[in-house]
Amino acid sequence: MSIVVENLSKTYGEQKAINGISFQALPGSVLGFLGPNGAGKSTTMKILTCFIPQTSGTARVCGFDVSTDSMEVRRHIGYLPEHNPLYLEMYVREALGFIGAIHKIDQPEKRINEVIELCGLGDEQNKKLGALSKGYRQRAGLAQAIFADPKVLILDEPTSGLDPNQVIAIRTLIRDLAKTKTVILSTHIMQEVEAICEQVIIINKGKIVADDTLSDLRLKHNNKSLENIFIELTGSHVH
After folding, report:
1. How many domains does the chain divide into?
2. Is 222 left (phi over 0), alpha (psi -120 to 50) or beta?
3. Residue 16's domain spans which residues?
4. DSSP characters over 187-211
5. Residue 15's beta-bridge partner residues?
6. What are the ABC transporter domain coordinates in residue numbering (predicted)?
């Protein structure tokens, strides 16, 4: 099990951002992590990536506890946050070299070439990140996330703001990466989940309201579309 979350909670003052959630994510597949804004998705991802501590409960990544083994967790995770953090004054190759140095990668040049090829950045590799289109910036962010070949990838809205061709290219890349990794994908785009996710978790008001394979979730809801299931489970009429 690459990710095991047990009874995880995070409280800000009186507000429970997540409330006793438990789930697991398997290697070799993409887990779609869905929920309305403010449901607790980003909070969960920030705990898993050791950006913020939980209030209670446990989370383990590749067997390492996020509280007691946070450096090991970081070594096993690639993270692309919703607001893609790039040093815009750096060139593409330079930025990847910087990531390689942080991770103390052997033969960084070899890995830079591999990642540029994998993420389709060949034509843009000698440009500054600030000069790239949004689609290529997302690819550069993904290239940074996968640079150290992590076992787990956590992607927050990776195709947000991309044109349809770019979306298809990034989805294909995520599908390929998932063959050898555990991928958690947070998105508001239901077609994206239907296109690339095997497992679906829906979180609402800090609690998990669905955790199933996509096919079983549909069966349980009379083969409704994922969009309709999502509305049913997270709409205001649900208490």
Report:
1. 1
2. left
3. 3-85+150-234
4. -S-HHHHHHH-SEEEEEETTEEEEE
5. 12
6. 3-230
The answer to whether position 38 is within a domain reads yes
Q: Which helix (H) or strand (E) holds 227?
A: helix 226-234
How wide is the angle at C-alpha 117 spanned by C-alphas 112 and 119, nearest 5°? 95
Q: What is the CATH number of the domain that holds 16?
A: 3.40.50.300
28: left (phi over 0), alpha (psi -120 to 50) or beta: left
Q: What is the pLDDT of residue 162?
A: 82
- Decide if 138 contacts 167 (C-beta within 8 A): no
| Low-confidence stretches of the chain (pLDDT beneath 70) | 1, 236-239
Strands 29-34, 15-25: parallel, antiparallel or unpaired by DSSP?
unpaired
Residue 102 lies in a domain: no
According to DSSP, residue 123 is labeled G
Distances (CA, A) of 194 to 9, 85, 214, 218, 227: 28, 27, 8, 11, 10
The helix/strand/coil state of 147 is: coil
Q: Which helix (H) or strand (E) holds 61?
A: strand 56-61
d(C-alpha 190, C-alpha 199), whole Å: 13
For residue 99, how many other CB atoms are within 10 A of its CB?
20
Residue 193 phi/psi, 5° resolution? -65, -45
pTM for the full predicted model: 0.90
Bridge partners (DSSP) listed for residue 200: 32, 212
Domain-located, residue 145 = no
- Number of Cβ within a 10 Å radius of residue 131: 12
Quick one: tokens of 74? 């970081």
Looking at residue 239, its pLDDT comes to 45
- Only one residue has tokens 């309709």, namely 228
Report the length, in residues, of the chain: 239
Residue 230 included in any domain = yes
